[in-house]
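Record type: monomer structure entry
Structure origin: computed from sequence
Chain ID: A
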Amino acid sequence: MDVPVWVWLVTVGLIVGMLAFDFVGHVRTPHAPSIREAAWWSAGYVAVALLFGVVVWAVWGSVYGGEYFAGYVTEKSLSVDNLFVFVLIMTSFRVPRLYQQKVLLIGITIALVLRTIFILLGAALIENFSWIFYVFGAFLIYTAYAQIKSGSGHDEEFSENGVLRLTRRIFPTTDAYVEDRLTTRIDGKRYITPMLIVMIAIGSADLLFAVDSIPAIFGLTQETYLVFAANAFSLLGLRQLYFLIDGLLDRLVYLAYGLAAILGFIGVKLLIHAMHTNEVGFINGGEHITVVPEIPTSLSLIFIVVVLTITTVASLLKDRRERLRSAERAAVEAAAAREAASPTADEKH
């Protein structure tokens, strides 16, 4: 895939422009977005990402277009799992809802910069060491196993990582928020506020998720430009998605299993690709034959979409059944309570 330098510059400029627009248009004036606002802006960011994919398809062909869409859908689905941790962080740091947009945007910007570094490192490894696909594939299969083992459970408390502990140790920190300021001066001494700490928490937490998602998308495409674009567009809409599905997260009980299936599938795809790259196979009549055929991108995209659809529908159906059972139990208990409280015939006489 031949991507001129000016195309890179235009793409990076578009992403920086969208971040700047987000900050000026939404975050600079603190407010808690409504569901309607979050829905419209989420749809807008998804539309931009899909339009970008159409451009890739038209300019570079269906193969690269399919790789971008598969990568974007995978990164977007994995980013939903990030939101569970974001909710825990916001709750743990007691971030006022008025300022949560700013926290998310700055944290996501930090994550985008760090992910770009990860992507460049991953591209360099792939370029120089073809065996790295075995490592990526094995790691994703292990991650899929860990997802299945953990099931739908998520930790109910957020534990600070080493980056946050080091930050608190080095810099004096205030106990309370000072509006939405990152630093403040008290008695002539500069302090950082919990607002800056929680932004670092969001950014560093997303970096840990990148350890899974970057190898996953390299399993779908080895084009650095597409990997960068899919990651960037999936992160850009994460702030709006947070407010849109904040109350829906607990209902996606089968999400972990769906993500495990996707990661396991891509892990196997990476191992197969590694065999082809390293020409693992046998000689038959002087012709080299590979062990197994590579999985086409179109099949990968179909598999990912089908798994996400089944996961979401099954989760919502189970949640609906649970809510109906809870409502029935509540009705029975209420009826029993009324019957116990009403006087008997003997008591009336």
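Annotation 1: The beta strands are 183-186, 189-192, 281-284, 287-290.
Annotation 2: The chain is about 75% helix and 5% strand.
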